[in-house]
């Protein structure tokens, strides 16, 4: 009997695999470039500016030259009140997140990122976009306790690196909330290409000031390596990651993405200990991170349940949902159709929150992270 192959399902899991590989690869690549023990380019702001500049140029060609998508109706008022503040916090999150690589390990950075739902929840409550709820609050306490335990078990704990990473998380949480408050209020929809087109250049400008004050003087007196192919491939990987996120969003539901995010985090922690031997993890690290992840998973379950309740959709298994989404012809491929405007469903920021490349498992806008090179990532 000939076995039937569900091609849409296979394609979906292929996209998920590509996302996991690119996300992990970008984070490890950034760490390798920045680390004094390896490529030794200890200038995180410069690296982030390279990513922003490259992404902005590619987006410009896609929008203005090749006309893959059309630009949105952007007025000066919307740009000044929405794009500029969002870009400022985006640039800050990338700057602080990347700088953390100079002080702490990739594994510990991933563990600290479990705090992202906590920061996002409290910022959302403060800004009035979410309500304070006891069940969510208890989950946030569980996540925080887990991260504290994990930090206590960190052999190479560094307060400076931890503060950089936590500051980056807070900046990213503010960006996510501002995106929801400002852009949704204006009814503005951005897909990954148009978000790169508007936000990457603005973020580049914001990064220029700290770069000029902090890194330019250091670069003038130090013997730095500048290998074109290293930085080009690094920026290209970050850009490819951004688009892979969009493809994943178009093919799957929130549950699938969050499960993939959990898998990616564990794979990344394991890989980082192999590639970077100094990234030693202890039993207490793992226990604390497992506790934090329990809180994150329960939080995500609550959010997904709320979304389903509000939309009155019955619970579905992941394969069933993927198949259904495929049959409904989600707009993930519309981005490549020059006849479609930039406010297609594949990039609608007003739709259900989906994925955050550098903080998977939490609600995020569809404004992509441009590879979140904080590292990550990130830039993840």
Automatic annotation (TrEMBL):
Keywords: Membrane, Transmembrane, Transmembrane helix. GO terms for biological process: transmembrane transport. GO terms for molecular function: antiporter activity. Residues 334-351 have a biased composition (Low complexity). InterPro entries: Sugar_P_trans_dom, TPT_transporter. Residues 333-355 are annotated as: Disordered. Its main location: membrane. It holds the Pfam family TPT. It is a multi-pass membrane protein. Residues 14-300 form the Sugar phosphate transporter domain. The chain crosses the membrane at residues 12-29, 41-66, 78-96, 102-124, 136-157, 163-183, 195-214, 226-248, 255-276, 282-302. It is found in: Membrane. GO terms for cellular component: Golgi apparatus; membrane. PANTHER family: SOLUTE CARRIER FAMILY 35 (PTHR11132). This is Sugar phosphate transporter domain-containing protein. It comes from Citrus sinensis (Sweet orange).
């Amino acid at each position: 009997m000939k076995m039937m192959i569900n091609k849409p399902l296979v394609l979906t899991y292929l996209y998920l695999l590509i996302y996991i590989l690119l996300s992990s690869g970008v984070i490890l690549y950034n760490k390798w470039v920045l680390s004094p023990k390896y490529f030794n380019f200890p200038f995180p702001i410069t690296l982030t500016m390279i990513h922003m500049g490259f992404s902005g140029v590619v987006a410009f060609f896609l929008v203005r030259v090749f006309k893959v998508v059309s630009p949105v109706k952007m007025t000066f008022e919307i740009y000044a009140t929405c794009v500029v503040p969002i870009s400022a916090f985006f640039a800050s999150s990338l700057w602080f997140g990347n700088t953390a690589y100079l002080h702490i390990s990739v594994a510990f950075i991933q563990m600290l990122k479990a705090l992202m739902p906590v920061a996002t929840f409290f910022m959302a409550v403060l800004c009035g976009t979410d309500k304070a709820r006891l069940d969510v609050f208890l989950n946030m306490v569980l996540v925080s306790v887990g991260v504290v335990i994990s930090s206590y078990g960190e052999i190479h704990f560094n307060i400076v690196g931890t503060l950089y990473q936590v500051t980056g998380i807070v900046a990213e949480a503010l960006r996510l909330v501002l995106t929801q408050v400002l852009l949704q209020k204006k009814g503005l929809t951005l897909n990954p290409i148009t978000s790169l087109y508007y936000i990457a250049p603005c973020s580049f400008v914001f990064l220029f000031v700290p770069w000029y004050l902090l890194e330019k003087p250091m670069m003038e007196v130090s013997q730095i390596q500048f290998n074109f192919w290293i930085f080009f491939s690094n920026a290209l990987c970050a850009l490819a990651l951004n688009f892979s996120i969009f493809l994943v969003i178009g093919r799957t539901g929130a549950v699938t993405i969050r499960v993939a995010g959990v898998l990616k985090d564990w794979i990344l922690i394991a890989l980082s200990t192999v590639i970077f031997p100094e990234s030693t993890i202890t039993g207490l690290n793992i226990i604390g991170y497992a506790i934090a992840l329990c809180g994150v998973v329960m939080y995500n379950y609550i959010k997904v349940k709320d979304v389903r309740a509000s939309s009155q959709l019955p619970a579905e298994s992941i394969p069933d949902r993927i198949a259904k989404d495929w049959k409904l012809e989600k707009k993930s491929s519309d981005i490549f159709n020059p006849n479609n405007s930039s406010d297609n469903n594949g990039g609608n920021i007003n739709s259900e929150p989906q994925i955050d490349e550098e903080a998977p498992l939490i609600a995020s806008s569809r404004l992509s992270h441009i590879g979140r090179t904080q590292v990550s990532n990130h830039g993840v």
